[in-house]
Design brief:
It contains 2 helices and 3 strands, in the order βββαα. The protein has about 120 residues and is an alpha+beta fold. The chain starts with a strand and ends in a 7-residue tail after the last helix.
Length: about 120
């Protein structure tokens, strides 16, 4: 192109992270489509319209990063029905769905528990 270099194509990126519910490591691949005009120095195009060439080099990292970030899930999950972690002890509820705790006791009554009722 007369104004600069038009970069278009697809990129496959590897993703790694943690499930927001159970903290299990998850990984995936994402394929993104990219298209960006890199204009020559001194071009009348503004930076809002196109990216600038830096000498003979084209830095694709900002372009790829922006496209990947837009396609990432807001809250990544290992699976849609992930049960998460127990809020009391942190046990993985996916591994033990029947996980349970005794009913919590009210600590304000602890000192009275040791007292016995008088015999009539």
């Amino acid at each position: 192109m007369v104004e600069g270099v038009l970069v278009s194509g697809t990129a496959t990126v590897a993703l790694r992270g943690e499930c927001v519910r159970c903290l299990t490591e998850i990984s995936d691949e994402l394929e993104i489509d990219v298209q960006e005009l890199f204009v020559y120095p001194g071009s009348e195009a503004t930076e809002d319209e196109a990216s600038r060439l830096e000498g003979d080099l084209i830095d694709l990292e900002p372009l790829l990063r922006d496209e990947v970030v837009l396609d990432l899930p807001f809250q990544p999950l290992c699976r849609e029905d992930c049960a998460g972690l127990c809020t009391v002890c942190g046990a993985d509820l996916n591994a033990d769905p029947q996980h349970d705790h005794e009913a919590p006791t009210d600590s304000r009554w602890d000192k009275l528990r040791g007292l016995e009722a008088p015999n009539a």
